[in-house]
Description:
Blueprint: H1 5-10, E1 32-36, H2 45-49, H3 84-87, E2 93-97, H4 111-123, E3 145-147, E4 165-166, E5 180-181, E6 185-187, H5 197-209, E7 214-215, E8 232-237, H6 245-250, E9 253-257, E10 269-270, H7 277-283, E11 291-292, H8 303-316, E12 321-326, H9 332-342, E13 346-350, H10 361-366, H11 371-384, E14 392-396, H12 402-411, E15 415-418, H13 420-425, H14 457-481, H15 487-490, E16 497-499
Parallel strand pairs: 6-15, 7-8, 8-9, 9-12, 12-13, 13-14, 14-15
Antiparallel strand pairs: 1-2, 3-16, 4-5, 10-11
Helix pairs in contact: 4-14, 5-14, 8-9, 9-11, 12-14
Amino acid sequence: xxxxxxxxxxxxxxxxxxxxxxxxxxxxxxxxxxxxxxxxxxxxxxxxxxxxxxxxxxxxxxxxxxxxxxxxxxxxxxxxxxxxxxxxxxxxxxxxxxxxxxxxxxxxxxxxxxxxxxxxxxxxxxxxxxxxxxxxxxxxxxxxxxxxxxxxxxxxxxxxxxxxxxxxxxxxxxxxxxxxxxxxxxxxxxxxxxxxxxxxxxxxxxxxxxxxxxxxxxxxxxxxxxxxxxxxxxxxxxxxxxxxxxxxxxxxxxxxxxxxxxxxxxxxxxxxxxxxxxxxxxxxxxxxxxxxxxxxxxxxxxxxxxxxxxxxxxxxxxxxxxxxxxxxxxxxxxxxxxxxxxxxxxxxxxxxxxxxxxxxxxxxxxxxxxxxxxxxxxxxxxxxxxxxxxxxxxxxxxxxxxxxxxxxxxxxxxxxxxxxxxxxxxxxxxxxxxxxxxxxxxxxxxxxxxxxxxxxxxxxxxxxxxxxxxxxxxxxxxxxxxxxxxxxxxxxxxxxxxxxxxxxxx
Length: 506
């Protein structure tokens, strides 16, 4: 089958090479604003002094370029010899806090976390250490957990740390794929309908470069993803939108979505203004109508019924790994064990902080267990049943950075799923308009044919590749400081964690 021009663009190879990927917007948001008055004499002293690239001359003209104030460290530079405000011979520079900064984010995704994620996506490392890149302001959850790092350096060489993760641990299914990913995370389900196909392709290319996976979500399998079949998880949700036997046969992992942590008991929901002609065609639905996925599968009310689903996929693709995505009710441990006995390879537990465009706040904040509680409960119950090492436990629901990933693994997860952080990497501002067709002014969570082109595939791919590199660097740093040599050694090490409400920092 011949590929279209779009397919050819999508199939362009991507590598892990770190390349600077600046903002696609002229005026990127930062914590500070630098003002240059007409008193500027163009001496260029500020450009020669600033180590952060805030000031720059325009070619050979001698004129100063408008300050790149998103790189500015503000008051943190005041005690340094290169503080531009004090060193300007003409007194032409002034420093102010950026008023937009205070409008960004919320208690979980603070302005600092957003800006830090942008920084990592641009540079591939944590370069702005004045931003808080590990903690939000939630007052609970992962924000209350800290690692107990040894007072004496561990002596573990970071280059020795193994961050790979085996996804198939079952010894009773020799025909299934043996899959090892290079990092302990993969991309969560975001459907064509919730995000654009450009964004889906960018995530797939980044996953391929990092030898991991990304999930289609419940909106079908766009043809643009075909070049990345080996790194795609196809999702089978309760609405069965866009489910095709031939796509199930192509992939290595199929995921049943029984429930979502942000809206357990409600099912999926795509509002009508996001159901464009392209989306309707993919989902075999009527354009402009709101699409609901029921809860649950109305053919699954027991573990035996669940096993029939697993057997259905195995009949179509005997080598496929089966994942079951479940919410985190109070009996999530029993659900996870049931998934194991039904034959799944991966149990994916989604906690209450999980992001979603269309879910009422009362559901997102009050129904499912927070993921940090669910992980430990499932991990311990699987261990008590004697099957912990026969199944892969993946956690999702509010993981924002490398520190959260490490904490989730220490609580008992084998790996995690990330989603919102991918969106933030391509400059999502967390405005909360994801559910609207033209609500996302940055073209990320949009199916509008015009807005989707705000996302250039090469740009978004590179931003994600850079972010994953930064995450791995930080994760390796945490593991080596703890005296461990692999992600596997970190799993279930709750003794390396402390909760600020119940222990004193050492």
